[in-house]
Amino acid sequence: MPVEDERSALVTLAAHGVAVVPGGRCFSGPHEPFLRVATSRLHEHVDEVADLLAFAAFEEHDRGQSTITRG
User: Fold this and answer.
1) Per-domain residue ranges for the chain?
2) Is the pTM of the predicted complex or chain greater than 0.85?
3) pLDDT tens profile 13-29
């Protein structure tokens, strides 16, 4: 999944309880920033996780003010 900044997206998702892998671990050369996301065990909260992924991918928001809430 493409993101603006791998590290920022990882931290944002981890703060919301979502674990992903930085894409940089998969390449030895130059690459665009991205995350590896596995969803095979995701059976609940699919829409919430999708919203979190979209939120983390584009860091054009105020980092201290997440509009995503866990339910």
Assistant:
1) 6-57
2) no
3) 999 999 899 988 888 88
